[in-house]
Structures are given as structure tokens and as C-alpha cells.
Amino acid sequence: MRRLSKFNRISALVLLIAVVAALFVSCGAKQENNGTEGGKITITVEVVSKAGEKTEKKITTSAENLADALKEAGMVDGYDSEYGYTITAVNGEVADFNTEGAYWALSKGGEYLMTGASSTPIADGDHFEITYTVYSE
User: What is the pTM of this model?
Assistant: First the structure.
């Protein structure tokens, strides 16, 4: 019988931990939504514009993910794709990747998110940042 290499064993372990963590976060967000008055939670969203100006908005919502909360608050424009919701404008400011290499970067508590807005669960008290960013190699 063929034995798994050390790399494959470590990769499988990392994948297992990621799946368990995703399930834990997902279940935790739903419990927090159910534990608040009327299923509503409040998150804070800080927007950093192209000019570097910062604005902050508190959103009270019953949404379960960041994209739905932002759309519900009227803060973003974009479109749904096979990869989830793509944010093209925040507070009316457009970031055009095709002409400027610009996009809206998402972070939570200063940590860059590795998920898109539609696959990012939200919980009461979360603080998110949306930053106008220009891609450079």
C-alpha cells in the first residue's frame, strides 16, 4: 500500500482544519443573529476612498453575509457572478479594474479577507473595511 507523503498529510490536515473553522464561523454567526432582538445585528463598515478619505457607517441588518448587508444599506453597486457578488462601486465611487486596475479590497478588523463579500458571514459587533485599491505587481 502506498503511504501519503508528509506534504500530502499536512495538506489534508490544513484542509480539514479550514473546513471545521468555516463550519464553526458559519454556525456562530447564525447563533448570534438569532440571539439578538428580532434577529438584527449591527456591524460597522469603514470606507476608504480613492483620495484616502475615511467614512464610517453602522448597519443594522438581519442579513447573514457582508454583501447582502451592504446592498441592503444602499452602500454598494455591483453584479452577481459565478464567483459571488462583485462590488464595482461604494458610496457611488467606481473602481474599474479594466481601465485602472482598481478594485474594492475587503478586510475585517484590519485583516485582508480571503473570501468575497457574499461568502463572508457577519456577526454583531463586526468591523469591516472597504478600501479603494489599485492592483500592482
Answer: 0.71
